[in-house]
Amino acid sequence: MLYSASLIILKDLRLLLRDKPALFILLVLPLLFISILGLSTGQLLGWKQRNQQLKIAVVNLDGGDVSKEIVESLKLREGVVIVELPTREEASVLVTTKKCSAAVILGPQFQERVEELHVVDLLDQTRGRLSGGLDAIDVHVEQKPLFASVGAIVRQLILAESMRILTPHVVRRNRLISNWIDKAVKRPPESPEDLPPEEQPRPAESPTPPPDETNGIYEVLVPAYTVMFVFFLVQIMARSFLAELSLGTLRRLRLAPIPSVSILIGKTVPFLLLSVIQTGLLFLSGKLIFGMSWGSEPWLLLPVMICTSFSATTLGLLTATVVRTESQVEAYATFLVIMMAAISGVFMPRDWLPMVMQQVSLVTPHAWALIAYDEVLTHRPIDLAVVTQCCGALLTFTGVFFTLGWWRFRSMT
Hints:
Strands 2-1-3-4 form a four-stranded mixed sheet, with helices on both faces. The longest helix has 31 residues, at 260-290. The protein is mainly α. It has helices at 2-18, 20-42, 65-75, 88-96, 110-115, 119-123, 148-172, 175-186, 218-230, 233-247, 249-255, 260-290, 301-320, 326-344, 355-360, 365-378, 384-410, and strands at residues 54-60, 80-85, 102-106, 139-142. Helix 2 (20-42) runs parallel beside helix 12. The chain folds into two domains: 2-44 and 215-410, no CATH class; 50-178, D-Maltodextrin-Binding Protein, domain 2 (3-Layer(aba) Sandwich), CATH 3.40.190.
């Protein structure tokens, strides 16, 4: 049985290596696709390069010390680029032409509105003078309607920065609070020996080295499209079966004294090996090109890769025993691959899917593979129970697909 299967494996490997279009689709095309997608859109959520940072046009029509301090403070914010302009019209042009994400206008009445604030306004921003938000202090944010979420982020950023700068100015005008703060600040510190044991200063610990900085979007993008392309084996395997049916090779194999299981193993293993190689190349390119992280335990990627490849190749086997023509491969196999990818969370992060769709997606092997990859690549520490459960689900799909494929193969004429 093993000898027969090994001969079929060697034969199919030679045929597969001669099939240059199939190798291009399985190995080269995914690399090109992920590279182009990653370089064009992959860093949008990272804001790591200058043209991907949050760019804000600022117009300071007030010109006072407080407004200048707020602008200078915004310039120190990481991931934010401030473009100072003299007029509101120029800022609007930059927003309209998408050269800036939003525009912030500090109005001419800013200093006057700040002088009217009291401590209670800072403490209760829902009922005091600040209940109107930034408009209450003559600060306005403009953005294109399409970027409403960006405008909300900018408003929160400006409000937080304004409160940080304004609080000391408002507090100083309250003589009672200001005197109390001065006394508290000028009070000599207690001697460490006079402190109780639980308040004794501890020796400084050596700082923990920061983790490697990577753009986390690639830990989502690369596994997602790797899973999608792994299941494109369904089409390649279906065409391979059809070619052997037309040549009569499968009929001769079935007439030979070879168990059906040996034939199916021999037909599946070459694609399994190719699938594992394909997955390894895609993860390697993600590491080399985009600097993606392989997680704290990279070795855990291997069982996930193998289990995913098992489920993909056995699904390809099942599909190959169902279709009968090239047009059926184009219609059924292509639809199956795209539909399963769409509902599983390949085209967008699974966390963005509604809860109902996240549950529905579990009927696909794609979803279990994505959950396992997410656990290995992004979680610290890794929950081995989750990885084990996902691999178990993928192997269950493998068993079901192979059994159905074997049953269908026996009924083929």
